[in-house]
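ping. complex inputs:
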Amino acid sequence: MLEVRNNTRWLKAAVIAVLLLASPSLVKAQDAATGTATATVVAALQVTATASLAFGSVIQGVPTTIAPTSASAGIFNIVGSGTLEILINLVLPEYLSSSSGDRMVITFAPTDGEFEGLVAADGTDFTAGSTTFNPYTTLTANLVANSGAVGLGGKVYPSENQSAGAYTADVTLMVSYTGN
Amino acid sequence: MRPLYLRLVATVVCAILALGGSSAAQEVATIQATATVVSGLTVVGANNLQFGTVTPGVPTTVDKAAVTSAGRWDISGTAGSEISVTFTLPLILDNTSSPTSMPISFSATDASYNDGTGSQSSPTGVLDPAAPQTLRLGTVGLLEIFIGGTVSPTISQGGGDYTADVTITVAYTGN
Amino acid sequence: MPRSVFRLGFGFLMLLGLAMTSSGQTITTTNNLVFGLVYPGQPKQILPTAVGEAGEWLIAGNEGDEVRITFTTLPTYLNLNGVNVSVVISETDAALDTAAVPNQTSPPVSGLDPWQPIIYRLGANGLTLWLGGSIIPRQAQAEGDYSNLIQVQVEYTGN
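pong. complex structure:
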């Protein structure tokens, strides 16, 4: 009789042992880990047309120059992210036109572009630390504290017989992040 | 007042959605370049310098203040603009029908100008026609130049009409 | 006689249990999937071979153990305060290496589909798993730091 009970106990123990083996939590057969995916979206670039390149009154036969650091210079202001690098591209006109269709030649010298990492109201805001560039070429520069300003000068050549009146042309600035 | 046109054009360029594409989103803005061409500078010969009938051997002078006989040019342009004035003075008058000539001379005070603040008899200033001058147009863009001179017919000066051209050249200086 | 057999059987079963307990796998995240600076309107792809940028997990366990690796959570967007930026994880964006010194730039097993269970045998130093992906920020995507979770589970297959 004692032997039979002993056998039963062992059998139960064996069954329990098998059940224990089948339970995953005790055997640690799987594990999990959590990682993260992260991204930082930079602020989109915005550029504002702050001031026209204003030659004012010009006289027939007398070429007139505006320096990019003068109060009449054309000004664009760029807002972006931190000190990221940007690529600046100016699309420059070859002449100004009047409402009657007359044209007046305009040219830009290699020193007619200015860039500095600040906010400029007019060309006099550029400091000695600004970068002079040829506005016919692209410029790679860094923003400073989210900001950058571009100044543009130029020279118009009214002919001797240039008809009187107001002349205008568009100057377009395109800016993009380089990714650097 | 300078015309100042501000136009802001923002064009957002759609990025190419190919994965790994390198076209960056651009921002665009446009300013204008503006200029106003001022009205042209014109000069008109308004009155000839007329010595009238002169007597051989007797030098005859016409004063710049003489309203009907002094020469006068009327200049018009942009008010207040600075101009340069240069005289081209003849040395002789030529006979219209025979190859003879009569000397003419201009003194250092033989020209004057009125920018609207004076008159021919009381000009704004006196000019030496032999020297280039820099003057300013008046407040309505007008300037009058007057000129006198002296002809010296010789004792044996042949009769007839004698003429010559007196020219002034004007230009804006840009100042 | 029967008594002895049962005792022996029980003891044998117990030994097996002990052996299995000591061979559990562990999985550790050793690198997050880092897209870094991204620009509005400019998609960016991180390949699983991008060192320091691709997600990386280290699976430790016994050499020869066959494991099933399942990405239980794969993001389709990253989030910042309720604003989402789209993320695409493609069916070739996972790679692994079981070498002692894993080669991330040229993994022997690449182009794996993280959306399906990956079954593989551990090497002498376990297994290193990598995950890439692409992010597609909109033109008007608000600036800021976006994130989301990736969960990976590994289990022994029993083979």
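Chain B touches chain A through 33 residues (CB under 8 Å).
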